[in-house]
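RECORD TYPE: inverse folding
INPUT: structure tokens
STRUCTURE:
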């Protein structure tokens, strides 16, 4: 990419996490930057209504990534951010969740660094934290889990070749992002590496939104139950005995039921 002449006002890119889905979980800093941006480059999984915070004259560019369907290849996206900044624009690169947790944020700002583009990173509530909280599943709990591990169910080469012995430890909560397509293999590997087939596991779909669905089961039965329920992405897989707490801590579901009843 040929470097363009520098504009009078240098551009900047703000890499902004928009949280797991509920617009109320957007940070104050994220909201302010969205409202100030000249251009917003946004993903598929951002909260409903978040673009309404933008200026009416702001350029809005969709670069969403869905399973096997990338609107803009990652390399082109990285260079798009460079071009917009070189035009002197204040750019918000808007991502779902947190940009540094399975959001490719590091890859994008590496390119900005290489081209000398100023940038900053604004953290967001990551899907694991937000979806677990709204599902009533504490990721850590003194009686259940002293550690929590985040893993991706979709590696760069398309495999699920993970560190299974580390993920299948007892007294631990494991959260799998982008894992619904490989849920059968994930559950098989967790059992093969030491967890009992009856070990609790859950799937949270559309977490923190009115469309949230929570399905609890165990490692042996979860894949079949997910298929029977028709659950697809976006969804998180949570493995650990903390899942058992959902039955009594599911505050969001109770609030949804109460709201429906009152309506």
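DESIGNED SEQUENCE:
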């Amino acid at each position: 990419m040929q470097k363009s002449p520098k504009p009078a006002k240098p551009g900047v890119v703000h890499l902004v996490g928009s949280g797991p889905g509920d617009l109320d979980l957007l940070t104050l800093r994220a909201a302010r930057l969205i409202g100030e941006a000249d251009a917003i480059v946004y993903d598929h999984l951002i909260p409903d209504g978040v673009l309404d915070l933008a200026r009416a004259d702001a350029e809005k560019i969709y670069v969403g990534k869905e399973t096997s369907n990338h609107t803009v290849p990652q390399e082109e996206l990285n260079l798009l951010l460079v071009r917009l900044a070189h035009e002197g624009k204040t750019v918000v690169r808007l991502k779902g969740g947190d940009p540094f947790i399975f959001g490719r944020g590091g890859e994008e700002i590496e390119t900005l660094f290489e081209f000398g583009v100023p940038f900053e990173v604004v953290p967001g509530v990551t899907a694991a934290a937000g979806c677990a909280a709204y599902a009533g599943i504490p990721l850590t709990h003194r009686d259940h889990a002293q550690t929590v591990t985040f893993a991706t169910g979709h590696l760069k080469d398309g495999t699920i070749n993970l560190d299974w012995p580390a993920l299948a430890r007892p007294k631990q909560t494991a959260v799998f992002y982008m894992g619904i397509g490989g849920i059968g293999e994930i559950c098989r590997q967790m059992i093969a590496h030491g967890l009992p087939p009856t070990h609790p596991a859950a799937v949270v779909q559309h977490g923190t939104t009115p469309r949230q669905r929570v399905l609890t089961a165990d490692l042996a039965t979860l894949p079949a139950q997910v298929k029977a329920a028709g659950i697809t992405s976006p969804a998180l897989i949570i493995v650990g005995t903390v899942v058992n707490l959902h039955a009594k801590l599911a505050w969001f579901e109770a609030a949804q039921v109460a709201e429906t009843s009152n309506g």
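NOTES: The chain has a mean pLDDT of 93.
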